[in-house]
Write a structure and sequence with these properties.
about 425 residues; alpha/beta; Enolase-like, domain 1; TIM Barrel; 2 domains; eight-stranded mixed beta barrel; three-stranded antiparallel sheet; 14 helices; 16 strands; globular; binds 2-phosphoglycolic acid; binds zinc ion
């Protein structure tokens, strides 16, 4: 029986930070219901697809200080649904309809929060109509490639009231033999960080948007050394079994060509900032660094990537914003060697996959990523598996919006044939 879309409805729901976001609810002709809720960022890149938010002028909008999404929901109900009802839930055709409705490159008319919600709900519904999981729909044969997790331990920046200059200190358990083991190691490190932080007299009760601990260290070096201590304390070997990754999110503290430390107020030229990062990388077991420079500081990205010379992973998040034109420039200019793939920076499932595919073709590693504002949905885990992304980043081991993704990966590892990706 060929299933078609019988109802499509947008609903304003809440994300993990208590802010409004868009859920698309699709009902197929067999009566089955398929939903997708879109995530939302705090340290958003300037070049991301456009998330439609209301102005906060009407009575009901003002309670969310202008972050309500009634217009995006209205667009699903009144602009998108009339076109899609009666058609097949197929990724390519749903996305083609969405592009036909809004040809602006960043979905400024219907809103990328509306487009992605519908694109995802369609993909999930399509998997149902084929009686398979979303991961299997995207990778029909062969073992599923279980992504290597990159997990927040400490957070600062826009996610934790500036507790650290950089946004996150994360860990990668590359010595683990499967995701269950990797997450058990990382969960122990996160627990140790809370315990040890308190024992050393730090305030440890600030939990950041993505579940990392917002401990106010005086320097990034001190924060990294602390996480290394925790890796040792749980009985693992830093650098051999578990290494560090940084998300610098440097756009957040870039001002007129300089990088300005929030904690010390010290102004660094781009060259001084680069030297500081290189010395940090040389003194700590860091194997991956994200957004070391600001989103449009292309020149220093290329210089830095040449200097580290493949010794570590250099990931573009705000730099590329999951946009093909920015990735193409980055490949040409050798700005990075890795890309973060955030579907809501792009606005469509199929185009996000296209960006990931082009990145892989250029020899980049790919990391599928959640946002600071998340939902209880787990489709991101299926995308990472189905696209053989190799790595996944969803925040900490804390918070059900984070564990929903980890638990989906654990479920797949327990029930399907998988191979654990070892990108390092
Ligand atoms: P965001 O942060 O979701 O707040 O943008 C995540 C990240 O920078 O990777
Ligand atoms: Zn980032």
């Amino acid at each position: 029986m060929t299933l078609t879309i019988s109802t499509l409805q947008g609903i304003q729901v809440l994300d993990s930070r208590g802010r409004p976001t868009v859920c698309a609810r699709m009902v197929l002709s067999d009566g089955s219901v398929h939903k997708a809720t879109v995530p939302s960022g705090a340290s958003t890149g300037r070049h991301e697809a456009k998330e439609l938010r209301d102005k906060g002028t009407t009575f009901s909008e003002k309670f969310f200080s202008g972050s309500s999404v009634h217009q995006a929901v209205w667009n699903i109900n009144n602009v998108i649904a009339p076109v899609l009802i009666g058609s097949l839930p197929e990724i390519e055709s749903v996305d083609a309809f969405l592009i036909a409705i809004d040809a602006s490159p960043r979905y400024e008319v219907i809103g990328a929060n509306a487009s992605l919600a519908v694109s995802l709900a369609g993909a999930i519904a399509q998997a149902h109509s084929h009686k398979i999981s979303l991961a299997r729909l995207l990778r029909p044969t062969g073992p599923l490639v279980m992504p290597m997790p990159m997990v927040n331990i400490l957070s600062g920046g826009a996610h934790a009231k500036g507790a650290l200059d950089i946004q996150d200190v994360l860990v990668i358990a590359h010595g683990a033999s499967n995701i269950a083991q990797a997450l058990s190691w990382i969960s122990a490190i996160r627990e140790c960080a809370a315990r040890e932080g308190a024992a050393r007299g730090f305030v440890t009760n600030l939990v950041a948007d993505e579940g990392g601990l917002g401990i106010a260290f005086t320097s990034t070096d001190q924060a990294c050394a602390f996480v290394v201590d925790c890796i040792n304390l749980v009985g693992l070997v830093p650098g051999l079994q578990v290494s560090l990754a940084l998300d610098v999110a440097a756009t957040q503290f870039f001002d007129q060509g300089n990088y300005i430390s929030r904690s010390s107020g010290k102004v660094h030229s781009a060259q001084q900032w680069s030297d500081q990062l290189i010395s940090l990388i040389n003194s700590q077991p860091i194997i991956s660094i994200e957004d070391p420079f600001a989103e449009d500081d292309w020149q220093h990205w290329s210089q830095f990537t040449a200097q580290v010379n493949e010794s570590i992973q250099v990931i573009g998040d705000d730099l590329f914003t999951t946009q093909l034109n920015r990735l193409t420039k980055g490949i040409e200019e050798k700005s990075a060697n890795s890309i973060l793939i955030k579907p809501n920076q792009n606005g469509l499932v199929s185009n996000s996959f296209e960006v990931l595919t082009q990145a892989k073709a250029a020899g980049f590693s790919t990391v599928v990523s959640a946002r600071s504002g998340e939902s209880e949905d787990s489709w991101l885990a299926d995308l990472a598996l189905g696209w053989s992304a190799g790595q996944i980043k969803v925040g900490s081991t804390h918070g059900s919006e984070r564990t929903a993704k980890w638990n989906r990966l654990l479920e797949i590892e327990a029930t399907e044939e998988t191979v654990f990706s070892k990108p390092f």
